Amino acid sequence: MSLLTHLLACLFGMGSWVSINGLWVELPLVVPQIPEGWYLPSYLSVLIQMANVGPLFVTLMHRFRPGALNEAAIIYAIIGLGTAASFLLAFFWKETVVVAGAPRSVALLVLTFFLATVDCTSSVTFLPFMMRLKTQYLTTYYIGEGLSGLLPALVALIQGVGVVHCINSTRFLNHTLNSSDSSVTFDLQAQYQPANFSAEVFFFFLSAMMLVCLAAFLLLNYHPSVARERPGGRRTNRGKDKSERDRKWAEQKPMMDTYRPASQKRSSFGTGLYSWTQVFYIFVILAWANALTNVVLPSVQSYSCLPYGNNSYHLSATMAAVANPLACFIAMFFPIRSLLLMGALTVSGSGVGAYIMGMAALSPCPLLVNETSGGVIIVLAWVLFILTLSYVKVIIGLILRDEGHGALVWCGAVVQLGSLLGAVTMFPVVSVYSFFSSGDPCNTRCE
């Protein structure tokens, strides 16, 4: 295997969700300086789901007009759009426009929609592109996709985002002319520390990451050593035309293969290796895993962790981001394509997720809130949750990769569908009905 190809596949995968992941971790710095305040996360959730028009369009084109879209051209376009939007964000994220008599961060919201469109569409374009390389490079791509969440989180930690110090605060009550009637109370007040560098610098970093993704994609297309890692083997000048024909065949092949003899297939999906019941089972698990890991549990992470202290919150967020690429790395050496194991890991991960959700529901006074063991358990729960379900997602990707180009397009579409269903479920629960409550990190008292 070519180490260069592995590196390029990883860098290519890092560009898939780095922009939106970076925007989420930067919220503690952005929110205090814009008129939307902490309503911004809710707006972002809605914008990200609206951006699913991108993958919907690509999926429908692949289904009804196979081969009509130039996959490489679409990838160049969305990476270029992501780079430009991240760069412009550094200049305009604080700019406001008066709408309906109130100032609104129109530039921030519009550019965020473009970034969300880029990242959502990458699910149905980047994955199918990896069909052009050997199977082992798909796992490396997933490692890069995991790093797209880890790297911005590490940079945000260096930046000092969300670091809170509890300082003594004195309050005077019952003010009268007679000082003896006044009472004094001493409280702790949460104070966010200034960042080590500005949000503008962070957005420039995101733009640079998209440029790295673009460079990696160029090399994956044109570097000679990468050409030797294609399924057809070493490509020479005489074999160039054949490789181009193979590419077009892969993109034009319908998602539902109806041309194989019925006696040789269990269904018309892909190669026909899996029955329709098994295909349905795989896609349900894929949608479920992505709903939990992309939307449902992340939307309550602060509620589940902050009661145990800021250290537990930051440690759980960082270690969960590490667990994602770690699961992909494990899958590189142990790619077990077992539907039974997939189901068992999904049940186990969902059970751990249920514990996390339970602690979030009990916030600000969850179990073991005043014990060190409580913080340790919640951090381990987040690591195990992300580790198990990330491994499941990688294995499903490998299974669908074996089923062909169209199966990977469906894979990306179901990923976005799962995230959409998760957002539709959690948005009213968290933002409209305020089912979860957060405590003051310095003053919450639990008996």
From TrEMBL:
Reactions the enzyme catalyzes: riboflavin(in) = riboflavin(out)
Taxonomic source organism: Cyclopterus lumpus
Biological function: Plasma membrane transporter mediating the uptake by cells of the water soluble vitamin B2/riboflavin that plays a key role in biochemical oxidation-reduction reactions of the carbohydrate, lipid, and amino acid metabolism.
Molecular function terms from GO: riboflavin transmembrane transporter activity
Membrane topology recorded in Swiss-Prot or TrEMBL: Multi-pass membrane protein
Chain segments annotated as transmembrane: 38-61, 73-93, 105-129, 141-164, 201-220, 273-293, 313-334, 339-362, 374-400, 407-436
Compartment(s): Cell membrane
Domain of life: Eukaryota
Key words, A-Z: Cell membrane, Membrane, Transmembrane, Transmembrane helix, Transport
Annotated stretches, region: Disordered: 229-251
An annotated GO cellular component: plasma membrane
Name of this chain's protein: Riboflavin transporter
InterPro entries: Riboflavin_transptr
Family: Belongs to the riboflavin transporter family.
Iron-sulfur found in the keyword field: no
Gene expressing this chain: slc52a3-2a
